[in-house]
Design a protein that fits this description.
With about 260 residues, this protein is of the alpha/beta class. The protein has a single domain, classed as NAD(P)-binding Rossmann-like Domain (Rossmann fold, 3-Layer(aba) Sandwich). It is built from 8 helices and 7 strands. It has a 7-stranded parallel beta sheet with strand order 3-2-1-4-5-6-7, with helices on both faces. Strand 2, helix 2 and strand 3 form a beta-alpha-beta unit. The longest helix has 29 residues. It is globular, with a radius of gyration of 17 Å.
Length: about 260
């Protein structure tokens, strides 16, 4: 894609203090976007924004709970007050709480749904209202997962939440297309991040069972995300793009 593809665009990305979210934020900023970077951990949000600023990007940290409705409104208000508008929203914040289905607690279930579903739903709602007010269209992107496509041990609630996000993207086509707002989802597979790197067997295991012979890098995921929020994807909406090196085609279990 051309340099400065996102010149004069304003983006919010949640859960972006590290990993996939941070790489998406970095690439958006490198291509000209002004980025409001959220993470629930203040230190990660500030360090992520500082990294982008050191790379000559425009980025403001905005730490806090991206599943809290008042905070979501404040986040959108901050982006508009600081940068003048809002063009792109990427609902990347999410949590994974493993657990056997027969023993899974209501507390864990509700927490997964609050962050993964409620946070994404209301961020897109509040952002869409702002985009409609501006009258310039916009881009909304949800972060799904291959676990929303294929069963994965101990991830019933998580997989359920990710599949629901893909249905939300499809449903919002009916609601938001008239305003030139596209809504899509990406579904990453195994990806090397700070978190997965802590597992000494992760790279080896997923390299063995992924047809392309390796897990994704954060850059692999960010490249797909940037396409779906760019001007090049203006006629793509309601879609979910799986980025997994072919894993869902064969689906061998890492266990």
């Amino acid at each position: 894609m051309a340099e400065q593809l996102f010149h004069q665009k304003v983006a919010i990305i949640t859960g972006a203090g590290q990993g996939i979210g941070l790489e998406i934020a970095r690439q958006l900023a490198r291509q000209g976007a002004s980025v409001l970077l959220n993470d629930v951990e203040k230190k990660l949000a500030e360090e992520g924004a500082k990294l982008i600023q050191q790379e000559k990007g425009i980025c403001t940290p905005f730490p806090g709970d991206a599943s809290d409705l008042d905070f979501i409104q404040a986040m959108v208000d901050k982006a508009v007050s600081q940068f003048g508008k809002l063009n792109i929203v990427i609902a990347n914040a999410g949590i994974t709480l493993f657990g056997n289905f027969l023993e899974y607690t209501a507390e864990d279930f509700n927490q997964v749904m609050k962050v993964n579903l409620s946070g994404s739903f209301f961020l897109s709602q509040i952002a869409a209202r702002q985009m409609i007010h501006q009258g310039m269209g916009g881009r909304i992107l949800f972060m799904s997962s291959v676990t929303g496509h294929q069963a994965h041990k101990n991830l019933a609630a998580y997989g359920m939440s990710k599949a629901a996000l893909e249905m939300l993207a499809k449903t919002l086509v009916v609601e938001l297309s008239q305003y030139r707002i596209t809504v899509n989802a990406i579904a990453p597979g195994a990806t090397m991040t700070e978190r997965t790197s802590n597992d000494p067997d992760y790279d080896k295991t997923w390299s063995r069972i992924t047809p392309m012979g390796k897990p994704a890098s954060t850059e692999d995921i960010a490249n797909a995300a940037l396409f779906l929020v760019s001007q090049h994807s203006g006629h793509i909406t309601g879609q979910s793009l799986v980025i997994d090196g072919g894993w869902t085609s064969v689906s061998p279990s890492p266990y």
